[in-house]
Amino acid sequence: MLAFLLVAAVSAGTTATLTYRKARTAILEQAQDTAVSSFRERVSDMATPLPIEPQSLQEQLRALARQGKPHPWVVFAEYGSIRVSSGTSPVSTVITPQLRRAALANPHGGFQRVEKHGEPWLTVAVPTVFRAGKTVRPTGLVLYAVMPLSDEEANVRSMVTAARDGALPGLAVAIIPALLAARSVLRPVRDLRKASQSMGRGRLDTRIQVKGGDELADLARTFNESAIALERSVGELRDAEARARRFASDVSHELRTPLAGMLAVTEVLDEDAARLAPDTAAAVRLISAETGKLAVLVEDLMEISRFDARAAELNTDEVDVAQTIRKTLTIRRWTDPDRIVTELPDGIRARLDPRRFDIVVANLVGNALRHGGAPVTVRLRKAPEAHGEGTRLVTEVADSGPGIRPEVLPHIFDRFYKADSARTRSEGSGLGLAITLENVRLHGGTIRAANGPQGGAVFTVEIPLTGGEATGGEVRK
């Protein structure tokens, strides 16, 4: 709209300026030509006897002034040192030296438009001559007509006012086509913005109605084609992801039963390994260890598949959080004070799922012992919510290792992510931190991975203690 109105204003201004200049020139030239031709004609018809008699000359000048066109003149005469006029003053302040020189140099005289004190004036100079046949001689007497152009200037100002008053309604009327033009341009843009926002919210079936054949219509067609291709690609990816999850879930379930038998057999073989030959005993212990790792991997795959299928549920109970963490450490025999340092104040109670919170603490402490460095510190505290309403349970697990490399930090909770690309096998399943993240989210909390100011990795779990049921949390790195 601004561009449209600017074009309209520039067009109106340009037209008014050109019209003003043409009209002003025409008005002034018409008055000027009339006055010059009339004054020259009157001077040529006037007979002035020599020598000059000032009184007689003044009468002639007054008669000449009364015949002025298009307005009355004030006529001045200069002859040597004689100065006579038809008015009260014998000399004029608007007659310039340039005009006097032009009158003496040219037998036809000259004219000039002069502005004095803001008022426009027309001055005409005509020298009187002797005519004897074809001989023309100046007499030395020069007559000047001085005429105000205030009426013409008033007419010009009236034209400017009329042009201005006519341009303002024109600009107001221009708003209507500007609105129509803006609407025709902005409506498709708004539709495109709404469609983009809808796609950003996951509505991949969003399409734009195409109208017309201009560039905006081409843009809408391109958007629709891109949306169709994106929907197809995302659909294929979702199908592939669903098939992969079903495959992992099915394989986990199928492996669970034979693994249970294998674990039972390996336990028996472990008990008798001491009575076997050394090579046989080493093979038995290797099979037992690898079977145990496979069982952990299968259990983790089944756990993560339950999260993917949204089948995981919370079975909460009010517990003493410090005692729950101590129980987790005791069961796994992480009680050596040289390896584990605890800061667990008693009396902090919360509604948690004890099994899932046990998995969270065990995974974080186990990860710190495997990949960090001893001692590992486990801290517990309560903190106010960021918005000031309610409190949150904060659990920190910090190790004394080298910390997490910056390029690894964004992927620390990804499934099967390996910080060392050269390492083909890991001691765990590669799903521990991913399962930890899902369990924290199930409690409506957040988990954050960072490096401590003194070095070492720090994992911080925050779970709300008040504010309603858990609805899902987030991960921050």
TrEMBL record:
InterPro entries: HAMP_dom, HATPase_C_sf, HATPase_dom, His_kinase_dom, HisK_dim/P_dom, HisK_dim/P_sf, Sig_transdc_His_kin-like_C. One of its GO terms (cellular component) is plasma membrane. One of its GO terms (molecular function) is phosphorelay sensor kinase activity. SUPFAM superfamilies: ATPase domain of HSP90 chaperone/DNA topoisomerase II/histidine kinase (SSF55874), HAMP domain-like (SSF158472), Homodimeric domain of signal transducing histidine kinase (SSF47384). CDD domains: HAMP (cd06225), HATPase (cd00075), HisKA (cd00082). It catalyses: ATP + protein L-histidine = ADP + protein N-phospho-L-histidine. Its EC number is 2.7.13.3. Residues 183-235 form the HAMP domain. Pfam families: HAMP, HATPase_c, HisKA. Residues 250-467 form the Histidine kinase domain. SMART domains: HAMP (SM00304), HATPase_c (SM00387), HisKA (SM00388). Transmembrane segments: none annotated. Keywords: Kinase, Membrane, Phosphoprotein, Transferase, Transmembrane, Transmembrane helix, Two-component regulatory system. The keyword Phosphoprotein applies. Its main location: membrane. It is an enzyme of class 2 (transferase). It is found in: Cell membrane. This is histidine kinase. It comes from Streptomyces sparsogenes DSM 40356.
